[in-house]
Structures are given as structure tokens and as C-alpha cells.
Amino acid sequence: MPIADFTWAAAICQTAAGGSAGLLEVLVTHPLDVVKTRMQLQGTQAQHGEILYRGFYDCFSKMYRYEGLSGFWKGIMPPIVFETPKRAFKFLLFEQCQRLFMFGKPKRSAMTFALAGALAGTLECFFLNPFEVVKITQQANRYESINTVTVAKQIIEKDGFGLRGLGKGITATMTRNAIFHFVFFGFYYGMKIKLPQRDDPFMDFLQRTSLAFLAGVLAILHSAPFDMAKSRIQGPQPKPGKIKYEWTLRTMQMVYREEGFRALFKGLSPSLMRVGPGGALMLLVYEYGFGYCKSKLI
Questions:
Q1: 174, 192 contact by CB (below 8 A)
Q2: Which UniProt keywords are given for this protein, alphabetically ordered (predicted)?
Q3: Which of 49, 139, 265, 298 is most exposed, with the fewest beta carbons within 10 Å of its own?
């Protein structure tokens, strides 16, 4: 299908494959997302009544000890409800807006995929951000599991829909998404068009899996400080009633000044464990799902 052509059959395939890929990735990798958020939210010293996590395995074991297995699934409903349509929208937008970044060339380049990915990742934030605020609020709670609707109502009643409520941290979310998807899609598809295509299905699968894994790792390394800032802004503030973390760059500066350079990458281990395999899973499910659907409809 020429890149400039739009067909409803292709759009349906892209939407269905993207939604399925997003849902499967959430179900498999959510516990690592909870651990990542917990590590990002804490400072260098424990607050009153707070448990201090001293690393990924320490966080994992303490969560299991004090909160049980269900603690790893806190905040799962917002992603389940939202990831399917969000991923569907993102992959559809990614595929259809590539034509905007051809720059007069007959073939797509790594920059085409990178810019299309960055645009798709940025635009999804307007729909994503409220769910992220609710999810992180749930994940941050160490003592009880609160219903998703209840958390959303509490946030709206207290702070509304603006930058203090469901819209808080949207600039950090947009910056993180733009950087992540620029690197992720740019590296994966840029390398894919440069490497020879494998005739053996198994070797083709291994090549795609390796590229997707590396793309996820590189994307996380570039976007991790912005993800940390997003969690600090959207999560509970250190002192109730006083807003410390509000703007992205200022939050990163404060964390760097108070906790050191390594603090900008808090939660990196679970992020890499989640997005490396999770990103590979998502991309492969999308590609194989899209290919299968296209063979049936187009």
C-alpha cells in the first residue's frame, strides 16, 4: 500500500493490532510499572511511616511482604481501560502521519519513523495524562487498594481537571513520550530497513525481537529523567498541602541538587525490565497482528 494512500481496511487493521498489542503489554508488565513508580516517588530519606526502598529487589520483596501479591496490580484499571484505545490511536497515527515526514524523498528514512513516532506519542498525552495521574496516585498508596473511580473523584473534587488536578504533569508526560517514541520508532524501523530481510521465519523473528528490545532500552535511557519528573509531579507531594514538584525542568533540577545525578534515573532497573521485553512484545504483536489482518482484509 503506497504511503500516501489511506484505506479504511488498513486503518482498521492498524487500530485492531495496536489495541491488542497495548492490552497484552499492560497485562504482562504492570507489576514492574508499580515497582518503578514506588522507587521514583521516594526521596533519600523515609518520611514518617514510610518504607524506604533500597533498590529494585528490596522494593519488590517489601511490597510483597507488606502488601501481598495484589499490591503489584495497584492502578491496573486505568491502563486496562485506556491502553487498548490509546495504543490503537497511537499506531494508527504513527502509520498515517509518516507521509508528513518524507521531505520529498521516495522512501521512508529513520527520521521519518522517528518524527512520526514522536508526534503520535505526544498527541496521545492529551488523552493519556488523566489516566496516568489516577494510576500513579493508586500505585503510590502503600496501605490500601483504592477503587479507580473513587481516586478519580477525589482528585477532581479537590483539584479539578487543570494543572493541579488530572492535567498535572502533562508537559513532563509529553516530553517523555516525545523523546521515548522518537528513539524507539526511529531506531527500530531505521535499523529494520537497513538490515537484510530474513527468509527464515524464525531468524526474522529473532532479528525483530532483538531490534525491538534494543529500541526499548535506548528509548528508556534517553527518557528516564523525564519519567522520574513526571512521577514526582503527578504523585503525592513530600509534604501534604505544599506543592514542591510542579514543573518538569525545575523538578529535575531539585532532584539533582538534593539527591544527586543517579536520582534522575530512579526506577531505571524495573523500567528496563519492563520496556525492553514489553516493548518487544508490543511491537511484535502489532506487526504480526497487522500483517495477519492485512492479509485478510487488504
A1: no
A2: Membrane, Mitochondrion, Mitochondrion inner membrane, Repeat, Transmembrane, Transmembrane helix, Transport
A3: 49
How distant, in Å, are the alpha carbons of 48, 106, 159, 170, 273 from that of 282?
40, 28, 34, 24, 14
- How far apart, in whole angstroms, are the C-alpha atoms of residue 29 and residue 279? 10
Query: Distance between CA atoms of 36 and 239, rounded to whole angstroms?
Result: 21
User: Are 271 and 59 in contact, with CB atoms under 8 Å apart?
Assistant: no
What are the C-alpha distances in Å from 159 to residues 51, 164, 166, 168? 27, 6, 8, 10
- The 3-state DSSP class for residue 257 equals helix
Looking at the chain, the whole-number percentage of residues with pLDDT higher than 90 is: 36
**Domains of the chain and any CATH numbers:** 8-297 (1.50.40.10)
DSSP-derived 3-state class of residue 242: strand
Supply 283's cell numbers: 511491537
Q: What is the pLDDT of residues 1-47, one digit of tens each?
A: 333 345 777 888 888 888 888 888 888 888 888 888 888 887 755 55
pTM equals: 0.82
Q: What is the pLDDT of residues 76-98, one digit of tens each?
A: 887 787 777 878 888 888 988 89
Retrieve residue 85's grid coordinates. Answer: 484505545
Cell match 533498590: residue?
55
Contact status, residue 17 vs residue 293, Cβ threshold 8 Å = yes
CA distances from 181 to 37, 80, 115, 166 (A): 20, 21, 8, 23
Backbone torsion region of residue 104, taken as left when φ is above 0, otherwise alpha when ψ lies between -120 and 50, otherwise beta: left
